[in-house]
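Comment on this:
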Amino acid sequence: MVGDDYIGSDYMRNGFVLFQEHGYELVESNWLHGGMDKMSEMNRVVEREGPEAVSVHDEVFDLIRDAEMLVIQFLPVSGNLIDAAPELKYIGTLRTGLENIDVKYAAGNGIKVFNTPGRLAETVSDYTVAFILAEARNICRGHAALKQGKWRRNYHNNDFVPELRGHIAGLVGFGHIGRAVARKLSGFDMRVLACDPYVSGRQAKELAVELVDLETLLKESDFVSVHTNLTESTYHLIGRQELSLMKPTAIIVNTARGSIIDEEALIEALEQRRIGGAAIDVFEHEPPGENHPLLKLDNCTVTPHLAGTSVDCMINCPKMLARAMLSEIIEGKPSGFLAGGPGAGSAKSTKERQP
């Protein structure tokens, strides 16, 4: 188990202690960078360039030489690291994404890879609902003004400050997080729309959500919240044309990935007051810099990529992954967390690798 600045090996041990009952010895280390800022910077390099782009210290190579299972969070698992563990059969990541693992190389070596889908569903959906309320009701702006000794009562949206009841929320993406948001917004008596080509009508109906196309969602929603993955097809999914479809009072929320929304188009729409406001936790380039326009606009609530950060998430993620891996490995039951395995990728490369 190799922890990091976000989820340490102590949290991993609390989850994977279940494996001790089945004869596994738990050994642990931490791949630390001196805080989440440096950790996030390293992770951005890995997401852009792959796991080979960031080196791993020798202690990790030594730790896994006899390991049958490797449990990680942000640690880059390159072909070099895999080659250093000839007994390795399973890799489990506490993340949903697999950018920091050479999944094809692992599969070519007969190694099954597990991710943790839905690990952020509760913490990000909580944050999304809070974000909707913060922007619509000027909570952050009022707080900041009062801290500066100003009793501020006038805001950009004075003419259309809403209640949530009776309004329409549109969810772009209806996976684990989108569904959790829908469930929570139902308590506000809202009508909820969703756009997701991979979701069936039955899944939406179970949560009283209407599946629509993106154009319909943008035109009808009072609140648009982004919950899709960033892929080639979703890069700048919401640009000038899409923003032009929104109501002039509508708010857009992004707790997913910055590049799903065209930032320049969003800034333009906010500056010209063509939409009601925005709440942004993620940026195309992070950190955005102190002169970034979104930080200066009065109709935009911003936070520094905090939506997925909670202590409960750090505690629960290892437990979720451990239960799924135990089900698959020990009990032989499908876990639903299997991301890749033998035959899922290319054959083992003949390229010489040295740790």
In short: Residues 311-329 form the longest helix (19 residues). The mean pLDDT is 92. The longest strand covers residues 168-172. The radius of gyration is 22 Å.
